[in-house]
Amino acid sequence: MDILKRKTGSMLDIGLVISLAAFVATLINAAAMPGILATGLLIVFTLAIAVIGIWREAHKEGQLDEVELAGASFGARWGVAAVIIIALLATFVPPLQSGINVMAAAFEASPASPIPASVRLFVAGLVCAMIVQLATKSLIALTWRRSKR
After folding, report:
1. DSSP 85-145
2. Both 30 and 42 in a single domain?
3. Is the distance from CB of 114 to CB of 30 less than 8 angstroms?
């Protein structure tokens, strides 16, 4: 049964990488495709990435022991605090606001993209927030596990 679990995990990893690669390839070549086809493919690949990602996380969580599971839960609960702190700092600290304005100007400077600059900036912000949250979650979970063992 252990071999089957390992194969399932590997297949989910491979499926996620293939879906991400297909999404990026479609996004890069979207201008050469009819709009409805590019949109349909991007929606399908986005759904595939979401489903495979959720399934992958559930599979990996099923393999954790009690301490690791508690650490993951604690990290997930408190990992969002970093995103909230960054949002508050961006609201009240002028240098961060200037950095956001520089990013917005950079997105406005590339008019060749079929995606509006405001949408690209919003998606970039979401991706950055996800990266910060996942990194914080991982660090908190690691600290939790090390303190409990």
Report:
1. HHHHHHHH-HHHHHHHHHHHHHHHT-TTSSS-HHHHHHHHHHHHHHHHHHHHHHHHHHHHH
2. yes
3. yes
Please report, for residues 11, 30, 79, 135, 147, the alpha-carbon distance to residue 131 in angstroms, rounded to integers and kept in the order given: 23, 25, 11, 6, 24
Q: 69 and 39 share a domain?
A: no
Measured between alpha carbons, how far is 64 from 59 in angstroms, rounded to an integer?
A: 9
What is the number of domains present in the chain? Answer: 2
Give the CA distances from residue 133 to residues 26, 83, 106, 141, in Å, rounded to whole numbers and listed in that order.
27, 6, 24, 12
pLDDT at 60 over 80: no
Q: Check whether residue 97 and residue 138 sit in a common domain.
A: yes
Q: Which helix (H) or strand (E) holds 8?
A: helix 2-28
- Mean pLDDT value across residues 51-56: 86
79 and 57 housed in the same domain: no
> Average per-residue pLDDT in the chain?
82
48 and 69 share a domain? no
Q: Considering only 47-56, 113-122, 123-132, 133-142, which range has the smallest mean pLDDT?
A: 113-122
Range of the structural domain that residue 22 is part of: 1-63
